[in-house]
Amino acid sequence: MFKPKSYFITGTDTNVGKTVVTACLLALYRKYGIDAGIMKPIETGVDQECSSESNSDAKFLLSISGNKDSLEEICPVRLKPSAAPLQATRIIGQTLDIKLILESFHRLQAKHDQMLVEGIGGLLVPLKDNYLVSDLIKDMDLPLIIVSRISLGTINHTLLTVKAAKQIGVKIAGIILNNLENRLLNEIELGQASLIQELSGIPVLGECPFIDSFSGKQFNDDVVKKIATWRI
Fold first, then answer.
1. Pairing of strands 77-79, 42-44
2. Roughly how many angstroms between the first and final C-alpha of the chain, as a whole number?
3. pLDDT at 1 over 60
4. Which residues are designated catalytic?
5. pLDDT tens sequence across 137-173
6. Would you put residue 209 in left (φ > 0), alpha (ψ -120 to 50) or beta?
7. Measuring CA to CA, which residue among 103, 101, 116, 13 is closest to residue 64?
C-alpha cells in the first residue's frame, strides 16, 4: 500500500542517480495528489549567474515539482567549484551556513505535507569542519533512502553505506537500485537486489528504470507506471 513519507535521498557515490530517483518520487507523489516539498540543500559546480535545469539539480527538481517555492529556499547553498562542499568553500573563502539550511528546511516542511531532500554525494561527504552529510540527515530527522547503481561493485558500495548509516544512527527506510544503462541486465545484476537485501537486512524498495533524457517530459505517467511497485 502506498504510504508517502518524507525522505532524505543519498547515494553510494556521486552520479549514482539521486536526482533521477528523487524526480521519480516527485512524479509518483504528484500522481497520488501528495503535496511534496523538494530540497537540494547544497549544490556545487554551478554558476549562479548562468545555471539552468540541465546543469542544476535544484532547478530541475523545482521544475519537476511544479512548486512555487523559491530557488533560494530549496537550495540555499550554491557553490561554483565542482568539489565537496568543504573543499569548495575553502577554495572561495566561505563558510557553509548549516543554520541557514535548516531554517529553509523547516520553512518548507511547514508548507508541505511531505518533504523529499536530495543530498550531495554520499553519507560521509564533508560539508564543513566536523560536519558531514550524515549530520545534516540527523539534524533534519528524516529516514534515509539509499540510491545504488545496478552494476558490478554495487554490493560493496551499498553495504558500506548501510554500515556507515547504522553506525551513525541514521534510520534507513530502504534502498533503490538505479539502472544507468539502456540494456538488459545479466544474471549477476539480476541477483544483486536479493543479495543486498539478505546481507544488509535493509529492504530494496524497487528498481529505477533507465531514463535516457534528463528532462521533465520523461517523468510522466509512463514512468509512474514503472515505479508504482516501489515499496514507499
1. parallel
2. 8
3. no
4. 40
5. 999 999 999 999 888 889 999 999 999 999 999 999 9
6. beta
7. 116
Distance CA(167)–CA(84), nearest Å, equals: 22
Please state the φ and ψ torsions of residue 6, each to the nearest 5 degrees.
Answer: -85, 145
What the block records as the C-alpha cell of 140 is: 533534519
CATH of domain 7-227: 3.40.50.300
DSSP string for the chain: ------EEEEESSTTSSHHHHHHHHHHHHHHTT--EEEE--EEES--TTT--TTT-HHHHHHHHHT----HHHH--EEESSSS-HHHHHHHHT----HHHHHHHHHHHHHHSSEEEEE-SSSTT-EEETTEEHHHHHHHHT--EEEEEESSTTHHHHHHHHHHHHHHHTPPEEEEEEE--SSS---HHHHTHHHHHHHHH---EEEEEPP-SS-SGGGSSHHHHHHHTT---
Report the C-alpha gap between 217 and 26 in whole angstroms: 13
Other CB atoms closer than 10 Å to residue 99's CB: what's the count?
7
Nearest-angstrom CA–CA distance, 69 and 35: 12
Domain ranges in the chain are 7-227
The answer on pLDDT for 65 being more than 80 is: yes
Amino acid residing at 201: G
Which of 231, 229, 194, 224 lies closest to 24 in space, CA to CA?
224
